[in-house]
Amino acid sequence: MSGTDWRSWSEADARADLRPPVPGDDKYTRGVVGIMTGSAMYPGAAVLGVEAAARAGAGMVRYLGPERAADLVLQRRPEAVTADGRVQAWVLGSGMDAKSRSDEATEGLLRALGQGVPTVIDAGALDLVGRVGGPAVITPHYRELATVLTAAGEDVTAEDVAADAAGWAERAAATLGVTVLLKGHTTYVVGPETRIRVLAGPAWLATAGSGDVLAGILGAMVAAAADRISADPAALARVSASAALVHGRAGALASAGGPLVALDIAEAAPAVIATLLASG
To answer: Which of 67, 125, 164, 183 is the most exposed place for a label (fewest CB within 10 A)?
Structure first.
């Protein structure tokens, strides 16, 4: 289905989307990312996303979610803020299930979507994609994308998406009106006049929580680039591709050829970012 030329994303491309702090920066100017993820069933997703955002350079992480998840977040990352306030970007939906999501959680997600700031929409918030009020990127795997497209009226199965990931990523961006980051061994990112493929990293990255870490890395990078994204609709796709590259490189570093767990990916992100910046 896809007949578009795809640009392969490089380390030089990703480096251009990294914003190291400069003298005069503070935690607010570096980018505040709000994270509304996790649930009573999957509280670990909140920990992974917050950890990843913090290690990917966010000036501050605000976490809003269930009490148990918030407690676990603060145990792991005591610098996280669990009070509502201004953010430059949101990460929504990781570790949630739309079918069992509480009314309170849904109301919180809709409030965040209505703020108009750049937003990363994952997993259990994908059903709300039609309610976005500003720049948004969705981060489904192929099964989730098939579900979202079916709800939007497309006749597609998960097997269809897996067989033509590039084509269905393009179709989803056109149908849903958002930037699409379709996760996989090759990740496809589609935005306005932008078609990017990223070799995501070793197959060891296919592990529980890996996508939650990607959402956190992406949230931090989107928050740092929020002004640019608001001014340039294509910028969100580029930043998304750069986050996917950082995630993949972090997975490779953490794996060193063997198994890894999701927290390993987050912990490797600072070294990957440092190497990318140093190579400029």
So the answer is: 67
